[in-house]
């Protein structure tokens, strides 16, 4: 999985910047809590966000070592960013109704397909293309599955936020897929 090199990225000090940005993101709510009661994070909130940021950055480290191809690396960034945002949005406000709606737990299937697929294909670009396509498919299927499992959830699932979030995340997974396909063509 070598492909085209991206020497500028390899020389750019992205690691300290990325980890520093993650620490700054984690410190923002702490600072905001000093000035407004609107932000009220608990130790659990900080632990959850810290673990989410760390997992995302470790995934990024692994992906950047998997290939030197720019399209591959960008695909990995898009996929990891999508996973990060899916977890964050779902935990903070929920996609279906609010964060306490048990139907939101179904989005774990999206992450499972992405993670297990990436491991199964050993990060190879062609396999990652199909993994991201499958991930987008599961993303789109979740609202329909919710309607089948919880028929009384129809008013919630058809609210504009659910189809919009579904479309945005599915599009992001497909963008990652196209980037991985681009990388596979050059490999």
Describe this structure in words.
It is a single chain. With 187 residues, the chain is mainly alpha-helical. The protein has one domain. It is built from 8 helices and no strands. It has helices spanning 7-11, 14-33, 43-66, 70-92, 108-120, 125-149, 154-157, 161-186.
How many H/I helices? 8
End-to-end distance, in Å? 7 Å
Largest sheet: none
- Approximately how much beta-strand content do the residues carry? under 5%
Q: Compute the average pLDDT.
A: 90
Q: Assign the structural class, choosing from mainly alpha, mainly beta, alpha/beta, alpha+beta, or little secondary structure.
A: mainly alpha
Quick rundown:
This protein has 187 residues and is mostly helical.
Topology:
Layout: H1 7-11, H2 14-33, H3 43-66, H4 70-92, H5 108-120, H6 125-149, H7 154-157, H8 161-186
Helix pairs in contact: 2-3, 3-4, 4-8, 5-6, 6-8
